[in-house]
Amino acid sequence: MHSAQAFTYTAGTGQRMVLTERYSPNRRDASLCPIFVPGNPALNTAWPPDDYSMHWMGLRYAAQTSSFAYVIIEHACIWDGFTPNWKYGLRAYYTDSGGAEHYSFWTDYVFDDNQWLDLTMEVGNNGQDTRLTVKNASTGLAYFMNIGTNLGATNGSVEIAVQYRHNEASRTDYVDARISDPDFGISSSPTLNICPGTLNGAPISLMSLGGFAGTVSLSSSLDHTNNYVSQYLGSTSLTLSAGGSAATALYFSAQYNSNAEGTYVAVVTGTSGSIIHNTAVTVNVSFNYCTGGGGGSGSVASGSLITLADGRRIPVQNVHAGMRVVVYNVPTAYETIATVSQIQTVIVNNTLTINTTAGGSPFRADANPYMKLWVLTPNGPVERPITTISTGDQIYNYDVRSWVRVTDVTITYGGLHTMYDILTDPNFTNSGLILEVIANGYPDCPARGCKESPSG
Description:
There is one protein chain. This protein has no helices and 32 strands. By secondary structure, it is mainly beta. The chain folds into 3 domains: about 1-180, Sandwich (Jelly Rolls); about 185-290, Immunoglobulin-like; about 290-445, Endonuclease - Pi-scei, Chain A, domain 1 (Beta Complex), CATH 2.170.16.10. Strands 21, 24, 25, 26, 29, 30, 31 and 32 form an 8-stranded antiparallel sheet that branches. Strand 4 (about 70-80) and strand 5 form a beta hairpin. It is elongated.
């Protein structure tokens, strides 16, 4: 049986040709066995083969016969003792990129009668890269072969004919030939939970499909507006290479106000020419997501130096339960030694850095309004959220035992950053005053203290 279908393939545009067939070989006629002996020179000498010694499926130019690629199921009669058995092996017949013809032995005779085989031929977007796949659906085994073909110029349209043929005793379940146009996919994290007074982000990912290569423009919108929240994209366009991926983030900011609370749906749309896809992120804003002690972050960054009881300073990630550290209360200048009872960690996607006139290592944390530092005001020391501290404010530095002026505050978003909370015993004085560990010289409010979310 012969069948052919012609369609237009444009090389160099990202289009792929995909040809698939489900086929089950069967010779049945035992009288033919003496003829179909492997290596019989009388067989497989003509193309297309008129002796039904093989099944073939492939692609060729509609107007030419010099360029082609075929998957071949070669029939053979293999003697097992005194019993002839029909067996089938894979061959590849094709024209390479230089114009030379090849008849390549792909596998031995590994298939049996009545096994279903899934044959796939996939031609890349330049017509010169072809992948052959045959999966034995009866056993689950798969066989692959990559060949360099010449099925089209790297640019320009060609008419391609799809052909297949098998003997009447075998069966074909289906044959499918199609052009796969280049496309892209877009995805995101489905949910983003945010504490009022903070900014957080959800990753947005793009993937090249079908050899897509190009620039995708991105835009975002909310299902309803609220003056207390805002959103923006880290990048408004991304460039994909064929088979590649790229990513940015959707950032959502909520003011420190109960009016910001609620559920929002942010839609991110990707556009490239006539191709448009979108993805949605559900954003939940609530003070319930502001709990301290790691769960709500507000913690010092990895690398921050913690002052120990003996005066040494070690990175916070090296501190462990049982160590003795200096703790301090800024308004009263009360100082004592406490024992580390617990280390809590959290992964965040932002960092806040405060530089001062004290020089040295800056104070580094994440942008959580429930983490506070002491700020000098006309009415004395007051704890303020670190997200509200700005250039010109004065904060306390333990190392110089003085108030120092803030010279720069920087908040950055993106990436993954590990933050640490140190819980100590004691955490408070007998009169209830907060005792803070020293991080890079700055008293750090503990999780069981100013980092906890407000009541009511």
